Backbone:
């Protein structure tokens, strides 16, 4: 059993989505039997984008072919010794082609971020923004990109366009804004979500949003409650669209009771 | 998270320009004090120090803890695996050829058997071998 050593926005999101899966993944450390292709693809695209921005910041001129090669290498690394489960319409070659197309599109994209840092990790103590109450645990994560004007950029890959409500209620961005404010003593200017949409013809959609001080207080309250639930070992299955691609369905009590 | 740097390696282009700095370290998780908030990055401003990332990284920031074998030793992380494949690619070995070469290097049947420490050592070795060579695609 794993001790709770830190929280991250993905851990919080997972707990809120399905506490049972959180237990399987982060407490019991049960190895997953497969990996959904969408996750592996998103990882490879993320790491290639990060490599690109780091190379650019170091003064290197990156060609489309170089970037495509890094993506293909990262994609292979994702697949090596992993049981990748492809969605009905996906296959290996299709995803390689799509990744190359997305990166090519990104290189030619006029609104590409003006990065001052790429893949910047952070570890900050969780402290209430106004009364200073400490939770005794760190929030960890990393910013995909921080732009020169303090805009936080987050890359996403998804099958569809994200609604403005999705973006506005994205806890991940609030968590990053909270972390940024603690780190630098000022709020980020805004948030930019660069969504790579996996259509037949891939496209990029950029959405901007902001967060207010109250959002950080609500975020802290949410984290405090989730932390209480995790340390109180409250884990229960929660059904939803995510069950279809869940790596732990074969041991999930909810799934098994449905199958019986 | 407290970092104990084991090695810091610089990757330079043939003309001597610094391309990347790679810090290989072991970490021990522990909450930091309010006065010790930290951010890391190899290229940002705002006093961004190098600091180890979460052990693995998945799409949309989803992480999966580094699994531990029976002897308690942490296994190779996703980011270490990715770096190894990039280093192989820099040497002209891609896909299955790189995979076979890495299994041979670690003398394993599956890369899932490789420990974090073994991966760190191999990364150091490959970076040393690559020093003075072609510009690297590898970045942690």
Residues:
């Amino acid at each position: 059993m794993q001790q709770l050593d830190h929280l991250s926005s993905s851990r919080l999101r997972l707990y809120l989505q399905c506490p049972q899966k959180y237990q399987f993944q982060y407490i019991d450390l049960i190895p997953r039997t497969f990996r959904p292709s969408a996750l592996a693809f998103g990882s490879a695209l993320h790491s290639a984008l990060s490599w690109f921005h780091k190379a650019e910041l170091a003064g290197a001129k990156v060609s489309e072919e170089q970037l495509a090669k890094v993506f293909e290498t990262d994609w292979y690394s994702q697949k090596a010794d992993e049981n990748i489960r492809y969605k009905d319409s996906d296959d290996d070659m299709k995803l390689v082609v799509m990744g190359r197309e997305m990166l090519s599109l990104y290189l030619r994209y006029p609104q590409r971020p003006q990065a001052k840092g790429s893949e910047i990790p952070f570890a900050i103590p969780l402290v209430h923004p106004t009364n200073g109450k400490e939770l005794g645990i760190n929030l960890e994560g990393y910013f995909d990109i921080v732009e020169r004007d303090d805009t936080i950029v987050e890359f996403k890959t998804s099958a569809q366009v994200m609604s403005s409500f999705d973006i506005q209620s994205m806890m991940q961005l609030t968590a990053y804004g909270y972390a940024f404010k603690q780190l630098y003593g000022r709020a980020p200017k805004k948030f930019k979500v660069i969504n790579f949409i996996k259509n037949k013809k891939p496209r990029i959609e950029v959405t901007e949003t902001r967060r207010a001080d109250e959002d950080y207080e609500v975020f802290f309250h949410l984290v405090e409650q989730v932390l209480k639930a995790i340390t109180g070992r409250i884990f229960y299955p929660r059904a939803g669209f995510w069950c279809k691609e869940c790596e732990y369905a074969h041991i999930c009590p909810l799934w098994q009771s449905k199958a019986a | 998270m407290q970092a104990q740097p084991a090695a810091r390696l610089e990757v330079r282009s043939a003309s001597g320009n610094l391309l990347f700095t790679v810090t290989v370290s072991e970490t021990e998780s522990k909450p930091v004090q309010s006065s010790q908030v930290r951010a890391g990055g190899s290229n940002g401003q705002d006093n961004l120090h190098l600091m180890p990332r979460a052990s693995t990284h998945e799409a949309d920031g989803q992480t999966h803890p580094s699994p531990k074998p029976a002897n308690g030793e942490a296994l190779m992380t996703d980011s270490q695996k990715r770096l190894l494949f990039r280093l192989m690619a820099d040497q002209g070995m891609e896909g299955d050829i790189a995979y076979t070469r890495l299994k041979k290097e670690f003398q394993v049947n599956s890369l899932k058997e490789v420990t974090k420490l073994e991966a760190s050592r191999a990364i150091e070795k490959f970076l040393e071998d690559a020093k003075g060579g072609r510009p690297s695609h590898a970045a942690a």
In short: Strands of chain B lie at 2-12, 18-28, 38-39. The first helix of chain B runs from residue 78 to 90. The CA atoms of residues 16 and 132 of chain B lie 9 Å apart.
